[in-house]
Amino acid sequence: MKKIFLAGMLFLSLQEIHACDICGCSAGNYFIGPFPVFHRHFFGTRYTFRSFKSTVAGDPGQFSKDFYQTIEIMGGWNLGRKWQVLGFIPYNINRQNSDDGLTKSSGLGDITFIVNYNLLNKQSKDKGGNMISQQLWVGGGLKIPTGNFSPDPTDIIPDANNQAGTGSVDYLLNAQYAITLKNWGLNSSINYKINNKAEGYQFGDRFSSSVFVFRSLNKGNTVFNPNIGLLYENLRANKLEGAKIPDSGGNALLAAAGLEIGFKNVSVGVNAQLPVSQNFSNGQTSGKVRGMVHLTFAL
Question: Distance (Å, rounded) from C-alpha 165 to C-alpha 208?
Fold first, then answer.
């Protein structure tokens, strides 16, 4: 295959407070894929959205319907054969419609930089003479607080989730493995995000993993890569002044399907994710469909 596009995850109330506000599902999203295998560098733009619905247990009059969108400029650089640098500049658009009314916010988000190292780049042949290609990238990075984070100190728990940024310098760890045989491929990833405190508030650490299977279909100079996969994410409890916030955090398993279309050095892709099982805020918050569209130029 001349071009392979990896589809995967490289990601992440109670008492007068809406369930999703406690959950912390909105802030600090960590969604890295898909992005191309590139010879030198790539750049592009990407749109993602996530939606949640929340109802406080025992009080259906307290509800929230939340819709979070991100528009990103992204780029990557290969430094020799072993090193790779990735950068993401997001613009976040948040919308919360609750029993308290409609709240909107938008602005520059937190910029992320990641450095990866190519630990494995191996090519071999099976018994039939077909080429098997394997790659393993490991790395880490920083999320810097370029986005606005100025929640109301008298109502910080619900307000923290409606900010453009998280106000903290956070650390990212990740690993991605890909294997291809003939026109088939498998991509898996593991990611961990370590969140720090800002304004006395700390979002819980986030773990995510994914596995995708894809197939390359060539028609002239155009390559079609349909893909399906599973994603798992786990959010640790949020904290306020070092104390865990009740009913915060949770986990979810999502099924995903997408399509990447590549023509020479240009790629366009779409991806949709739907929860298979989930437990956010002890059942008070439910995630709905998520989606992504991107346009990428690889050189």
Answer: 20
Q: What is the pLDDT along the chain (299 residues), one digit of tens a residue?
A: 433 333 333 332 223 333 345 454 554 444 554 444 556 788 999 999 999 888 888 877 788 888 999 999 999 999 988 999 999 999 999 998 888 888 888 999 999 999 999 999 999 988 888 899 999 999 999 999 999 999 888 888 778 888 899 999 999 999 999 999 989 999 999 999 999 999 999 999 999 999 999 999 999 999 999 999 999 999 999 999 999 998 889 999 999 999 999 998 899 999 999 999 999 988 888 889 999 999 999 87
Residue with tokens 């995967």: 8
Residues 176, 136: contact at Cβ < 8 Å? yes
Non-local (6+) Cβ contacts of 77 within 8 A are 40, 41, 84, 85
Tokens standing for residue 288 = 């709905």
Q: How many domains does the chain have?
A: 1
Q: 3-state secondary structure string, the chain?
A: CCCCEECCCCCCCCCCCCHHHHHCCCCCCCCCCCEECCCCEEEEEEEEEEEEEEEECCEEEEEEEEEEEEEEEEEEEEECCCEEEEEEEEEEEEEEEECCEEEEEEEECCEEEEEEEEEEEEEEECCCCCEEEEEEEEEEEEEECCCCCCCCCCCHHHHHCCCCCCCCCEEEEEEEEEEEECCEEEEEEEEEEECCEECCEECCCEEEEEEEEEECEEECCEEEEEEEEEEEEEECCCEECCEECCCCCEEEEEEEEEEEEEECCEEEEEEEEEEEEEEEHHHCEEECCEEEEEEEEEC
Range of the domain at 224: 5-298
CATH of the domain at 190: 2.40.128.130
What's the pTM?
A: 0.87
